[in-house]
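Encode chain A's predicted structure.
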Amino acid sequence: MKIEQAVATYVGYKQSLGMRFATQARMLNSFSKSMGSIEVDRIGPESVRAFLDGNGPMTRNWHCKFGTLKGFYRFCLARGYISSVPLPTTEPRCPQTFTPYIYSEGEIKRLLQAAASRVSCRIDALTSRTMLLLLYAAGLRISEALNLNLADVDLIDRVLYIRRSKFYKTRLVPIGADLTMVLREYTQQRHKRSPLDPEAPFLLTSSGKRILRAGAEQAFCWMRSQAKVHRHDGGRYQPRLHDLRHTAAVTRLVSWYREGVDVQRLLPNLATYLGHVHISGTQCYLSMTPELLQQASGRFEQFALGESSHA
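Encoded structure for chain A:
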């Protein structure tokens, strides 16, 4: 069986079980393309290792690819497509967990200014600004923002309907007055170039189509460059569009500390708002910034002094 046929069979099998399997499918199709049209049992360990290693330094992506190929080859072996598995018998140490970038208030303003300067492009100024604010103010995933339909944006009750997102969960995301105003302005302009179909995409390209993630990422790279927002902490990756979601979570924590509320009690609320099944899924978004650390330390100091006064 050809590699492309084996990949298609495996992906179809996984999706028939109710799995979305989109990321793994892209990874396997990339593997198939890099191997060429070859029998799946003719692929040797050297070729597999070359695909795993890639051209850059070792990242966690190596282990993602390895895990995906491990499942694929287990499937092929069970069905007799291959007689042996050409995967490495040992795995390199997993690199340190990736640290998201937390944008400062000044950087957010510069990104919005850069968005406002976009002209003659597929994702215009108003759409770019609206997309950034959806991610930052509502803490949405990129796919959630891009998959919004017109019917999912309720400007009367000020709620976003996030349908069948990650883990196939559907949730309601309340939004504030400022973001509602932004979305209302965008909706008014949007109606001038697209029919009022409730199932039509909310965020549109200049040609009236749904924005693809690759296009959104490319547009953001341009905005980030124009805004002169860069990492200076030695991180391998420059600030990403998805980091706006991380920033939203950290900003909310800082606000809670400033307000003097019980942050631990409210963490489940934040997890629900972000669409996480467990609080542990939220922890990766709570990267410590100097301001957040200062607020948390101040709260602990107040607690410690209070305890000592009662001792």
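Residues 299-311 have pLDDT under 50 and may be disordered.
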